[in-house]
Amino acid sequence: MQESLHQSSEDWLTSRRMSRRVLLRRGLAAGLALTAASQLLVACRTEEATPQPAGPAAGATPAPAEKMLIPIVNKEMTRDDIVAAIRQEGELVVANWTYTANDQIVAQFQKYVKETYGVDIKLIYEGTQAPSTYLTNLYTALKAGNPSPYDVMAIEENYWAEAKLQDPPVLEEFLPSPLIPNAERVDEMFRRFPTAIGFQASATPGMVYNKAKAGFLKDWKDLADERLKGKITLPLPGDITCGGFLLGLAASLGKDYKNPDQMKEVIDFAVDKIGPNVLKYTTDSAEMQQLLRSEAAWAVGFWNSLARMEFLNGYEDIVFLIAESGQYLVNGYLWIPKGAPHPILAQIFCDWRLSDSAQFPNDWGIEKGPWAELQEGLLGPSYEKGIPDWFKDQYYTYYPTFDQLRTQYKSVDWDYYAQHSKEWFDYYSRRLGL
Questions:
Q1: What's the rounded mean pLDDT across residues 362-366?
Q2: Model's pTM, two decimal places?
Q3: φ and ψ at 331, to 5 degrees?
Q4: What is the enclosing helix (H) or strand (E) of 292?
């Protein structure tokens, strides 16, 4: 294991104190009396001095008579108040992707709420491989003065970056929150307080390929090799899967994605040099699975999770291309839109999604492939204990260590991406005749 993965207890407590101070400032800003704010700080220090369990419900709700300040609703609430709010809300809508285990996510969260709060609720779990549609629906609803159609967005970081540029704001400031104690377990590199937090650590778009057929692939630019004629799929322009492809291809060609002229050269290369090898432009993961398994396609443009899932499903020649020019991290982030109709359940879902059980669904009764699709790396050192025995010896073959995430994977200027990616997609679409 890398030394950085084992953060010291002193560093861990320091990160907790920082979040507590933010919470204290929020309490004062919300109108708490100085005495009450001081009591809050004392309580926080007491909690820091007391060993805390790491389970998903650790610290999630107060004792029956104890009150907590819940920032998103600007209320002090007891556990009874929280239970009453959950009962009143009754359901929530989460915007996410088309996981193989979507049904299990729904069942497990509903079970968690029932066991923790004694309330039956309904989780409506929407899935798509084109999350930009969620933003369109959100903006349309808010501009019309209607509530948000979603309670939680669980999509890639670029969509959060786009949303935070909107005026008027479309993001709630909800972190830190006493209803989301698991957020403090998440490493600083995945925190976007006060509006978002990562629930993935190593998601990256790339090429999933058959090493027996296309073992010569080393980098994105190799997709132009004539041996791949009619044997690859690429994502359609318009969403982050395609954005990741263009970012990666730019790096492979030595181009600067912040230079508009150079990005046109990148797109021209994609159309003129790689285009003749494309069997189909698609973001349908089920279709790509079928094409790979039948060997109609030797390489498909998607996410590293697909390679893990296929390998663990028995397709041992299907692997992920870690490009020589580097991989961009495009992790999923949790955020709550303005006007979310179920804000208490939204926070409870966020905490649950960061729990040991949801990060490592070892007891969900799912197969290893879907397990590896859901599991996207360690969010912080306290999660390492969740690695199951059957995978401990191989885990870091399929997932990067913290040191690798910091040194071998690239970050994106998401503000720039949010402002300019549409220009790339428009030009790419015109070149493709779409």
A1: 96
A2: 0.82
A3: -85, 160
A4: helix 285-294
